[in-house]
Amino acid sequence: MLIVAKKEFTDQITSKRFISVLAIMLIFSAVSIYQGADEFIKQYKMFESGSLGEESKPSIIRIFGFFGSAGILTFGGILGLLMGFDLITREKETGSLKTLLSHPVFRDQIINGKALGAFAALCIVVALTIVIALGMLTMKGFIPTLDDLVAILKFGLITLAYLFTFFSIALFSSTIAKNSSSSLLIAFGIFLVLSIAIPMLGSFVAQAVVGSPPEIEPPMPPVSENPENLEKSPEWQEYRKKMQEYEQKMNEYYDRLRAVQELFGIFSPSTNYITLVSSLSERTFMPFQTKDVTKNVVGFVVLPIVFFAISYIKFLRMEVT
């Protein structure tokens, strides 16, 4: 298994498509990190001087920014797909899989070795992203604390899980497809469904299930020349009561809307990724985001396991001709 993993790791990191997509992703992330580092250091200095008031210490995760996360979402997902879509089909098309299986090696060792080698290559991707972030901070004169390093490590682990999710999807498509072209189409089809179609479907279903928002708030009462008399007037008291009821209805409406959207969101790796990364920072990237990310963690972990398990079983039962 280790021999297969070593060969797969070497093939991956020397592949032109791997290097090309990795370069684009790192350039995209570096620009975002450079801008995010300036903003983070500015906020951090304001926090130290006390000019931020009672606001908490800014999270170092803010250096990655929305655009840095978006770069990983897009190019990272594509990189994972390109690493795995022809992992099995290429071996079948060249006949090397039949030759390999003629040696005293078990099928589970082959697929586990290939997954291990690709996982090691993905670790290199995440490590380079973190090195760029730390390098940017050091160049700007900021030395991260232990808590900052722990937060960055968590970001790296979440990113690694995200990349491996799409590698698992590509591996799945490679085991069920007859050739590499079909495998690539299946992989990108699943990518589009999980990343775009499911979140959009969640929004449509949420609007259909929850319905229209509550009616518009009541009109303002007549303005009085004396503010004290206005606040004590029955019209003003009735207006405040109706406004409180309206705000409560709006909060309940958005809670129901968010609950349906989050139900669909747990099946989307991109939604789970943004949610989990945002949870590391006090400043969220998503509107109306819940603080409870347990279901996102579960969806984030279960999805790659399911795709890899199906690929594993399919490969063990595959007929090689």
Main pleated sheet: none
Shape field: flat
Mean pLDDT across every amino acid position = 82
Estimate nothing, just give the exact number of structural domains. 1
Count up the helices.
12
CA-CA gap between termini? 23 Å
Alpha-beta content class: mainly alpha
DSSP summary, beta strand count: 0
Helix content: over 70%
Oligomer: single chain
Q: Approximately what portion of the residues adopt beta-strand conformation?
A: under 5%
Which regions have little confidence, pLDDT < 50, spanning 5+ residues? 284-288
Q: Whole-number radius of gyration? A: 25 Å
Architecture overview:
With 321 residues, this protein is an all-alpha fold. It has twelve helices and no strands. It has one domain (2-211, 261-316).
Question: What keywords describe this structure?
Answer:
single chain, 321 residues, mainly alpha, 12 helices
Give the helices and strands, then pairings:
Layout: H1 2-13, H2 16-49, H3 65-84, H4 89-94, H5 96-101, H6 107-139, H7 146-176, H8 180-210, H9 227-232, H10 234-265, H11 269-279, H12 294-316
Helix pairs in contact: 1-6, 2-3, 2-6, 3-7, 3-8, 6-7, 7-8, 7-11, 7-12, 8-10, 11-12
In short:
The protein is mostly helical and 321 residues long.
